[in-house]
Write a structure and sequence with these properties.
With 370 residues, the protein is of the alpha+beta class. The chain has two domains: 241 residues, Endonuclease I-creI (Roll); 108 residues, Endonuclease I-creI (Roll). 42% of the residues lie in helices and 21% in strands. The chain contains 14 helices and 13 strands. A five-stranded mixed β-sheet has the order 1-2-4-5-3, covered by helices on one side. The chain is elongated and about 70 Å long. The N and C termini lie far apart (62 Å).
Length: 370
């Protein structure tokens, strides 16, 4: 292995160092090995969350059966480059040492084994993980119902990192597992629980030769949290595309605060009624260029931003607000000190299809359906 001798200890201070280390396996010597030492510091709550992601990885790609039988180490074997990175990035946050071994397979292709050695400091963590795996097998709902959304998201992310697939185009996600196996039943129980929580919707399970279940996300917040814990490079990129497509279809791209800043600087507005069969409408806002400069920060350069791009001309800027933002607009015009021009407020009421009398009275707490 280029740059390292056999069994050399390599210290990892940052998670991003891992890709550089795996890339150093470039002279294709079979059975080379290094010991990775982690020094990533997490708080206890995040350690617990990452432990749940580790459980997802074990279920999908680890030595589940051996662990249940009392095997002393956690092992992942025959991994691709991206999967090895995802597993090491996860494990190095909760264990002190990891053995990484490179092997040469067919076609001179490199595969990786990732092993957490059985050490004294790892013993307690291993016991907790095995205990939770057994409980997921025997009383899954009892265990899963106690988890926070972050922990459930990390658990699903571990399964996706291990045996997931995001369709291209990114319209669905699939998990490979055999329903007849013990760990396959656990994965199915997890998916069923998430469906009951209305976080996802599970489609048909395909048996031989695929052995996979496909699903879609129903809850954007859960999807966003899940993406945070997906470390597999290719799957993460496709999942980012999936999330952006989801957001553009269902989520208002502006917060109430952002809408307030936009509307405070709006000089004029009109409603663009779309022709059938769409039968939708768009609130079109115009802002003078010098006023737009005050709020241009709203359109940051985050690659995961799903805000529509403003249309900039010489003297003014056009911004389109779709019907996905109706709820936020309604909350905004209910504010006592929104500080928005009356003519803009009237146009928003027209867009919402309500009159001034129908605006929520903060004293009577009456509501309208949007």
């Amino acid at each position: 292995m280029h740059g390292y001798n056999k069994d050399k200890i390599v210290k990892i201070n940052r998670i991003n160092d891992i890709e550089k280390i795996l890339s150093s396996f470039n002279n294709k010597k079979d059975n080379e090995k290094i010991l990775l030492r982690g020094s990533v510091i997490l708080n206890e709550e995040l350690k617990k969350t990452i432990s749940w992601k580790t459980i997802g990885l074990i279920l999908s790609d680890g030595n589940f059966s051996n662990l249940i039988k009392g095997y002393g180490t956690i092992a992942f074997r025959g991994l691709s480059y991206d999967t090895a990175i995802a597993i090491i990035k996860t494990l190095i946050q909760i264990v002190r040492s990891i053995t990484l071994r490179a092997k040469i397979g067919k076609g001179n292709r490199i595969y990786y084994d990732v092993i957490v050695p059985s050490t004294r400091c790892f013993k307690d963590l291993r016991y907790r993980i095995v205990s939770l795996l057994i409980k997921l097998d025997t009383t899954p709902d009892n265990v899963l119902s106690r988890l926070k959304m972050d922990e459930l998201a990390a658990l699903l992310a571990g399964i996706i990192d291990g045996d997931g697939y995001i369709g291209k185009p990114s319209t669905y996600i699939s998990i490979s597992f055999n329903m007849n196996s013990r760990k396959g039943k656990i994965i199915n129980n997890i998916l069923s629980f998430l469906e009951k929580k209305q976080y996802i919707i599970v489609n048909k399970y395909y048996r031989e030769p695929k052995y996979e279940a496909t699903f879609r996300f129903l809850n954007f917040r859960f999807l966003h949290k899940c993406l945070k814990y997906v470390y597999h490079n290719k799957r993460r990129k496709r999942m980012e595309k999936y999330m952006l497509d989801y957001a553009r279809a269902y989520i208002c791209p502006f917060s109430i605060f952002e809408l307030k800043q936009i509307l405070r600087n709006t000089s004029s507005a009109y409603i663009d009624y779309r022709k059938p069969p769409r039968n939708s409408k768009v609130l079109v806002l115009y802002i003078q260029r010098h006023d737009f400069e005050k709020i241009a920060y709203i359109w940051n350069k985050d690659h995961l931003s799903y805000k529509p791009r403003p249309i900039i001309s010489k003297n003014r800027v056009m911004i389109k607000i779709t019907e996905k933002c109706k709820e936020n607009l309604f909350k905004l015009i209910n504010e006592a000190n929104a500080d928005i021009e009356d003519k803009i407020i009237e146009k928003i009421r027209d867009f919402l299809g309500i009159t001034k009398r129908e605006i929520r009275d903060t004293n009577t707490k009456t509501k309208i359906n949007i």
